[in-house]
Amino acid sequence: LAKTTQPISMDSYEGQEVNITCSHNNIATNDYITWYQQFPSQGPRFIIQGYKTKVTNEVASLFIPADRKSSTLSLPRVSLSDTAVYYCLVGDISDQTGANNLFFGTGTRLTVIP
Amino acid sequence: EAGVAQSPRYKIIEKRQSVAFWCNPISGHATLYWYQQILGQGPKLLIQFQNNGVVDDSQLPKDRFSAERLKGVDSTLKIQPAKLEDSAVYLCASSLTPSGVYEQYFGPGTRLTVT
User: Fold this and answer.
1) How high is the pLDDT of residue A96?
2) Is residue A36 situated within a structural domain?
3) How many domains does chain A have?
4) Of A19, A62, B24, B102, which alpha carbon lies 20 to 30 A from A78's?
5) Using CB atoms, which residue from B55, B58, B101 is nearest to A93?
6) Does the distance separating the beta carbons of B107 and A96 come in below 8 Å?
């Protein structure tokens, strides 16, 4: 199981782009990188998932360098409603047992300031 | 599409009492997870079901926690007897595939306070 390291907290002003980096030095060949968002009093919500290079969807982009030892979640033009905890997970989505792939860590608490 | 349903949303009990939580996953999702989230920490997996069977319960304190998923749909998580350190939010999630990091859909959680 690849361990991940993220900053504990980040602050950003409204309208800015926010980049949250996750380190996963022991990532395995079959591992994918997945990010979740969690608002207070709610369960986590899937944001984005990728294997290499860049993935973009309607809410975020995920940048993964060639060595895959880190990844960066990019949130464009954040608003107050983006204040949440963001979790980076690494695991093998082809592993049909699913066991031991479910480690959320403490995440990064993003605070968006008006 | 209806989301993952959980009940109750809040529960306060005294230590040594028992409590049960209920979860109804998204229709068609064969995999169901129960997590424990202590304040300030990320969710910790307690147990994972694939249909009726248990895939992983390595972090479930089996001396006091039990879970079942009858007929491969709804699930209940029980704590008996409860301890003060069991105070947490209990999250249920479901997914289409059994793989751990595939997209999981979470319910709103049950906040348990043990006094």
Assistant:
1) 60
2) yes
3) 1
4) B102
5) B101
6) no
